[in-house]
Write a structure and sequence with these properties.
Oligomer: single chain
Shape: elongated
Structural class: alpha+beta
Largest sheet: 2 strands, antiparallel
Distance between the termini: 17 Å
Number of helices: 3
Length: 141
């Protein structure tokens, strides 16, 4: 029974991580043209950092090999801003250049599709585990 619960825990951690990744992508896309933030300067593209953590480091070999996904943080990717000459923009510097975030919307869309596929895979794992548990209960009747 604990193996079924472990499967749910692994899939749930993956679903949670992909949901956070989706939110990060949405934030990046929404701020792709933001030239001024509360911290000053243009928006910085955000990237979540994931890490695999063992479910049970003291269990048998399968338990030690089974990992869940943990989000260790969200940070900026550190890319320098893209400078565009637009002297009429309110955030233009004295030289007439505006600093825009280096957010490539096409890259974000590819990340979005990848996130969607990973979320679907985790959902399928949850459904398959649920179906196996239900069938096991039917056998026991």
């Amino acid at each position: 029974m604990s193996d079924i619960i472990d499967t749910f825990n692994v899939a749930a951690s993956g679903l949670s991580a992909e949901r956070l990744r989706l939110q990060t992508i949405a934030t990046n896309m929404a701020n792709a043209r933001t030239t001024r933030t509360a911290a000053g300067g243009p928006f910085q593209r955000q990237v979540p950092t994931f890490e695999a953590r063992q479910l049970d480091p003291f269990g048998d070999e399968l338990d030690r090999a089974t990992s869940r996904v943990v989000v260790t943080g969200i940070g900026s990717d550190g890319r320098p801003p893209v400078r565009v000459f637009d002297p009429s923009h309110p955030d233009a510097g004295p030289d007439g250049y505006v600093s825009y975030p280096d957010v490539d919307v096409m890259q974000e869309m590819v990340d979005l599709m990848s996130t969607n596929r990973a979320y679907e895979a985790d959902s399928s794992a949850v459904e398959a585990t649920r179906d196996m548990a239900l069938r096991a209960l039917e056998i026991g009747r």
